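Q: Got a minute? One more chain.
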Amino acid sequence: MTTPFQGATRRNLLLGAGALGLAAPAIARAQGQYRAEYKVSVVGNRPLPISDGAFTWAELVTERSGGRINMKVYPGSQLVGGDQTRELVAMRQGVIDMAVFSTINISPQIREMNIFSLPFLMPNHRAYDAIINGEVGRDLFGTLTSRDVVPVAWGENGFREISNSKREIRKPEDLRGLKIRFAAGAIFSEIYQGLGANPVQMSFADLQPALSTGAVDGQENPVNLFLGFRMDTLAQRHLTIWNYCADAAIFVASKTVMDSFAPADRDLVIACAQEAAQRQIAAARKGLGIDGDRSSIEECVRRGVAVAELTPAEKQAFARATRPVFDKWAQTVGTALVQKAEAAIARAIA
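A: Always. Here it is, folded:
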């Protein structure tokens, strides 16, 4: 996807590390001394795809710039004390130079990002791709740009599924009374209240101990995270695949930082982000039944987790139950933007 900082030709991206290395002294003189380190923030840590995407981006840029642009990843949102909802503010304050954001974590500050959290808007990955690769994705990039943040690539954390320690969830009433953790955003509180559950907001850093002690009964996260953090060992014996919302990832950089780079280096940072994002998307989707690969679902079963894969009719029951929340938040996101997304999805899944 073209960004505001991709004015130079694509041919510049093909110069290679060798040619860029030869040009390094001239670039450094033209732009001034680059920093010894550029701080990259991301929630979680390897091997989670969202975190791995940040590490891959940093490694590609550092290697291909010959070490002139040294990006260092600070996983677990440690630059903001583990509170991933503060990453956007920290970037605008200069604490963070680059990041891989979850749209969920920045949606409290940027209301349009709640489009990915509208319940049951996107039935599958084709629908998700239609949003990020089309006009809606470009509009959202524009919104970020207006906040002095430079978006350089769309990635993916995955569709968020629900797990719990108590019982199988196949219909809305199965959620009644369950204490379900959510990361951020009032929309999630309203979704679970509408389904009769007791939503509890907490950071990802606090989630594991909360599940271990029974402070919460369940959580909602992509399957790759469920496996990566061994949630089967945290009393999460029931997992429901319902694709109720998507967790989009955005590779971003500080406008101040991008302005400080020579044009060729801006292009390098963007190209590496886009390559890392494609790898991230592939990792997030691995084993979920796409192209016949069900290895991640099968691994959950192997670990003793009861997996309920909802039928379209079962998903529709949840969609009907959460429609009031959808309609309310569609106005918050922007009715025109939501209609644009719905039209793109309809074309993609037709």
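A: Residues 1-31 have pLDDT under 50 and may be disordered.
Q: Perfect, thanks.
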